[in-house]
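Lecture notes, structural biology module. Today: joint structure prediction for complexes of three components.
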Amino acid sequence: MSVYQIVFLITAVVTLGAAVMVVSARSLVHSALWLILALFGVAVTFALLSAPFFTVVQVVIYIGAISILMIFAIMLTRRVMQDTGPGVNQGWWMALLLSFLLFGGLAWMLSTWEGFGTALPALPEGVDQVKALGVALVSPNAYVLPFEVASVLLLAALIGSIVVAWEKK
Amino acid sequence: MGDPINLIGDWLRNLMTGWGLPENLATFILTVMGVVVMASFLLILDIALVWLERKVVARFQDRIGPNRLGPFGIIQPFADIIKLLIKEDITPQGADRIIYNIAPLFALATVLMMWAVIPFAPTILGADVNVAVLYIVATGAVGTLGVIMAGWASNNKYALLGAFRTVAQMVSYEVPMVIALLIPVLLARSMGLQAIVDAQQPWFILVAPLAAAIFLVTSIAELGRAPFDINEAESEIVAGFHIEYTGMKFGLFYAGELLHALTVSALVATLFLGGWRGPFVDQVPILGVFYLFVKAFLIYYVIMWIRYSFPRLRIDQMLGFSWKFLTPLALVLLILTAILDKAMEGATPLVYTLVMLGMNILLVWATVQVLRTYARVERRRVAERRPVATATEADFKELIGQE
Amino acid sequence: MQNDWLFIGIFLILAPVFPGLALLIPRLIAPKKPNPLKSQTYECGIETYGDTWVQFKAQYYIFALAFLIFDVEIVFLYPWAVAFDQLPLFAVMEGVIFILILVVGLLYAWRKGILEWV
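The predicted structure, tokenised, for the full assembly:
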């Protein structure tokens, strides 16, 4: 067991535990905070995969913007601030069975994929990841069209959310 | 020669491998020691900042400041710390205990973590990650989270309200700040702070002074310092999100704020003033630390100067300033910088600097013209005669039943 | 590069320890005399009434939303800026178009009155 694997195991346990707590915490605000811990676990996983750009972007966007948005939404809604009792309903055994089946099915399907065992080719020495990403984002035979479409998508999101959230007084 | 920290590090590493420890463990122990030394140094610096703040504010206000404890009052911060430590820790009823206790840790820990990527000298650097600029934004964003945790956990509607407003302010000013940070990244072609310092042949403040100004102003607003401190100012009856915090917990928020101000100063110095650059720094790297701190304290003095000179902005003025003025200005500056930088691809550094400086000055002039036009339109709109109900003397007499 | 992230990782674990120590010391030496009057939450000097909740003000949410959109946009631009040396002029114009599309969004929000704090 190399150090990497131990650190990864700890990170995975923390992330999954936080994710379980998200759905089982009694107070919604606590759920939001556990979600932040789960997202941070994902960021640490990115760092372990030698993807520093995605580590910091995960923290900036998910923890710094999306989590704050969710916490605002939760805290500004009065009724949900109170303890709503246990979060399980009548059919919990059915849900558990289905989720195990789903997990088992996915695990079996992925185990037949040979991509698991092959290591991805490492970037050649001296190539900066972020530079390569930048070139890929704007070069015409790479991802320039998704790049521009992403900006239109963001524009649509902004306008859509303004239309939905803003009531003209 | 001239770089004692790396010398000591290498000596310790040789000592440990000489004792038979594996290489990885020696590196690990050295890293832990480096972290402890850096964090301790910063916290001691934080104590000095408390003293500095009180002395400087006193001088701005034409008085002397603490001068009773120790020569020039330098023991005053220690007395403050002892007082905070022995204060009773009152937790408000109904407060969420765990979050209530973690929130001040967030405030100070995120500020400490920002220093991990700041280059002190050409060879002294905590972690030379190639995404340091976004790392700084990330740790700032996590600090924002600490504010909302503190406000919510206090079970106090004013704390919650204050926390929301503070977070709305911090979030609004983060947009122009991240845009202004993009400009030195563009000029240096890298997000790593050491690479940005290396690329500053002319300091970036000469190439992009407007970006430096925008970054400074937005960082002061992020800090929640005056003139942007409507949420936690001393003259406000409610102290914002940390109203329910007493004793050392409040002390951590306060110390975190001051250290954050110094961090911002060090960042301005690194990104725009050339960081550790200075005469003879290549031969004697330890001088780099000295230059960096001189520049950082200069900017810190400017931040204090701004604090004690400007009246406070109202929250709607503050948010309007960010969204309607700073964000468009920063975006226009970014577009012009990008286009000009590409257009001048083969130019000499002197021509490059002059053209960029000229563009910045032109943009400032254009902004001032736009503002003047807007002000003229506003003045005219406010001053135009509006029909006001007028009552004559006859109306009045009729009203009270005479004549 | 691993060494750098190791430094940050250790810093992450140790950074809360220092303020944690600062909080531990009062727990040992400060007086503890809890009293219902002292634990009451502050409400401008009068007794607290009503639950702790904040009037729903759409403004908070809208500012956070606008921040999210612009944050994602700027984060997209960071790799573009880092790779500037290797980009021909039209790639720079592509980035400028990206920014301009979102400036349209900002102008829309401005004109709709979203950016007011009423």
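Point to remember: Chain C has one domain: 2-111.
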